[in-house]
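Lecture notes, part 5. Sequence design as translation. It can be helpful to think of inverse folding as translation between two languages: the language of shapes and the language of residues. The source text, in structure tokens, appears below.
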């Protein structure tokens, strides 16, 4: 593979780190007090799920999220932080890529009517797939330094 300036593995590392920074920004801009104390994030998602064009989204939300809103709020917020750190540091990278892909697909389905959100989630999912299948943790990662997933 011929590349410019960096090797192919280094460009994949740039892509992986950029995706991690995207997840960290998603975590950073969340109003944690609102999510954890007032339940604003879950209330927003409940409103969207309640009006969703696909009945299984409302049913899934009512079954999984509604009975445990505080737990799910912590899971979502801390998952975004863990994904970001894992990808930036290159630690447990395949796990972070699969987890991020699943979270993006969940967001994609929940926000199917909002095309602005769709672009972000689709691009993050695509970057996750490319980085996962191209083994994007070979360079500039703790995984490589520790000999993990090689």
């Amino acid at each position: 593979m011929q590349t410019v300036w960096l090797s192919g593995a280094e460009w994949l590392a740039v892509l992986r780190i950029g995706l991690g920074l995207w997840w960290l920004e998603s975590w950073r801009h969340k109003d944690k007090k609102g999510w954890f104390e007032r339940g604003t994030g879950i209330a927003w998602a409940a409103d969207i799920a309640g009006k969703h064009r696909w009945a299984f989204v409302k049913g899934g939300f009512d079954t999984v999220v509604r009975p445990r809103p505080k737990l799910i709020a912590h899971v979502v917020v801390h998952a975004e932080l863990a994904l970001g750190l894992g990808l930036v540091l290159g630690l447990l990278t395949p796990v972070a890529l699969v987890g991020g892909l699943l979270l993006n697909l969940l967001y994609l389905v929940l926000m199917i009517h909002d095309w602005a959100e769709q672009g972000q989630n689709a691009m993050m999912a695509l970057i996750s797939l490319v980085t996962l299948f191209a083994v994007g943790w070979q360079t500039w990662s703790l995984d490589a330094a520790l000999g993990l997933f090689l």
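The translated text above is only one of many valid answers, since several sequences can fold into similar shapes. The chain has a mean pLDDT of 93.
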